[in-house]
Amino acid sequence: MWVLRGLRNGVVTTRYPRRPDAYESSFPAAVGVVDPAARLPGVAGVCPTGAIEADEGGVRLDRGRCILCGSCVRAHPEVFSWAAGSETAATDQATLVVGDEPEDDDALSALRADLARRVRRLRRSVHVRHLDAGSDGSDEWEIQALLNPVYDVHRLGIFFTASPRHADILMITGAGARGMIAPIARTLEAMPRPVVTIAVGADAISGGLVSPSYATSGGVGALLPIDVWVPGSPPTPFTLLHAILLALGRVPAGREVTA
Amino acid sequence: MSNEVLDTQMDDDTVLVDRLADRLDAGDRFASLMGTDTDEGLRLTALLATPDTIEPFDWVLPPGTTSYPSLTPRIPAAFWYERDLHDLFGVTAAGHPRLDPLTLPLSDDSERPVPGRPGAPWSIQPDEHILPRLVVGTGLFTIPHGPVRSGVSESVEFLVETPGEDIPELRVRVYAKHRGIEKRFEGMDAATGVLLAERVEGIASVAHALAFAHAVEALGGVRPPRPARLIRTLHAELERIANHLDVAMRLADAAGLAVATARFGAHKERVLRLVGRLCGSRFGRGVVVPGGVRALPALRPDRIRAEMSALASGIMPDAQLLMNTSSFIDRLRHTGVLDTDLAIDHGALGPVGRASGLADDDRIRRPYDAYDELVWRPATPWVSCDARARLQIRFDEIDDACTLIDQIVTELSTMDPATPLCRSVGFADGRGIGWAEAPQGEVLYVLEVSDGRIRRCRPRSASFHNLAVFSHTFNGDVLTDFAFIEASFGLSMAGVAL
Fold this sequence. Notes:
The structure holds two protein chains of two kinds.
Chain A: H1 2-7, H2 22-26, E1 30-33, E2 52-55, E3 58-62, H3 71-75, E4 80-83, E5 97-98, H4 105-119, E6 126-132, H5 138-145, E7 158-160, E8 169-173, H6 181-190, E9 196-200, H7 202-206, E10 228-230, H8 237-247
Parallel strand pairs in A: 6-7, 6-8, 8-9, 9-10
Antiparallel strand pairs in A: 1-4, 2-3, 3-5
Chain B: H1 3-25, E1 29-38, E2 41-49, E3 54-61, E4 67-69, H2 79-89, E5 92-94, E6 141-145, E7 157-162, E8 169-173, H3 181-185, H4 190-197, H5 205-220, H6 226-254, H7 258-279, E9 288-289, E10 292-293, H8 301-323, H9 326-332, H10 340-346, H11 350-354, H12 362-365, H13 387-413, E11 430-438, E12 441-450, E13 453-460, H14 462-470, H15 482-489, H16 494-497
Parallel strand pairs in B: 4-5
Antiparallel strand pairs in B: 1-2, 2-3, 6-7, 7-8, 9-10, 11-12, 12-13
Helix pairs in contact in B: 4-5, 5-6, 6-7, 6-13, 6-15, 7-8, 8-13, 13-15
């Protein structure tokens, strides 16, 4: 019976990344700065997580801190706006800050070259281990969603594994709860080299709204080296998929730079 | 200070325990126990769910008091709450059967978070060395599951004590995810507080935001306008559908039914996308604000209706087929039985309680938002008390949710779009209690405000309350039943250790 049921709706799987996906490109997965040169001295106070910085140079927004509450968009629609498109992951934490002049490209390309060297043998088949370091639980839902037939990451040679011993990529969620510091170290130790790490969500990047707190580390960056930063609260499955492809250098040419 | 004063205090406390126990015998439900540091000493607050409201009972331990008579011997449901109190405040429940660390293991001389006290500790490191490790019994050994689990799941450690197959004893260690949420609330305003409430238990964001907003509205004496009540209910029910589909998916996955897992996963994705199109967040975040809602749904009512009917016609036949798949049902029937008596004693919440014959549901008993204005007959509780009943009640509730949403959509389509969606609500000083029925069960917020800032906020998730009874459901079940029993509870660990 289930066999027939499985055929009922035909193919529901997205063709992303080979073809664009309307849901991926239309989802408001980030906030952008429309007018980076605006002079808004008190605007930083609008943001509950301190993601906005404003001075004589203009306005900058750190997507690694942004929890997508939209306070800034409502208060200053002429400066901030929702940005459509889920491809918001970055290999350099500094590039998550939008509204800024691009950083010097040498450091960034060195970072990418190092990552490319590590993932050379992983490109076509990669095993991912997830690790929760104090998330609110929603990030896990979105990671789990990658396995449903709509995203079906198996078609791209991406597999989730139960054991860190079989894993190439570590996807880590949560603000870095202190109770997870030792388990994180043990998990990382158990993984074969090379290891690629992905920090999933604003909580993992900066601690989000949960930090500062006596019980968290204000993000997992303080606990282990991170290769790919995935903003969002939580990031959508497409953003997560983009992050994995970005780590593997498999994002189709011409689509890598977003901001 | 003489001993006499202390003794009198202890006597008073004992009388209070008796009073609480009498109320429970008379039919009230033990809902929560919390502490608040005040100038007069540590104030303990027990919350009782009466037939139509949630009632607080306060008593104060004078400064310097380090213990109080434990509630647990008379009120077993207080078991975890008193362990949590000990971790956060360092206060000892005298006569507690097993006061092991729960949410934050610390040695006796460590600094503790002490919610309610101004200021917060800079850093507190949980000390896993003080956790008891002894297993006593012939041929018993311990299988640790976690804190890093297999698959994509939240961190928690289950210590299964077993002679090889059955599970006579199960210990749950939840502290790994402790985030210090209660202290983090302190000093926030209402607008930021609701954002943090959405992140206490991320898969029940709407329910937590609602319970928080209800507490603020109780303080301010404000009721949101009707369209806001309807939109809140719409999102709360969509969240319920998504969560129940997640449970169905995990159960199907545990049984290795690949097609069923894929189908329920796809249905769930469809619900999350609908929520995302309504409000911009796949988890309904930003919808609820104290006093009302942020905006009208971004989809026209007839589009919501079309999407809902497509969803229902996809889910219901799959639910029916799943409940008739014998290889699946065999794994759930008589698995993880939570006896009705135990469920009543413990005050089991949500679908877990309703699968064991309990009818309590905040949407009916203590209605909020639009629940008492809509015509619906809540699903009859099941009495078979097993994992199968817990899944069946969830499918029943999905059915109810579709009925509710259908009515809400009808009302929204006749609504004047110019009606205000939010009433202004001040952040008055005092204490407010708010609740909401999350997919996991009742969520409770106790909120204390002074000078327009949160002085103390204590969320209590159904996950915390129900996880305490989880380990009592393994009578005769074996290791391979574990995944089914766990999934059938449908809890989120983020809401447990806070």
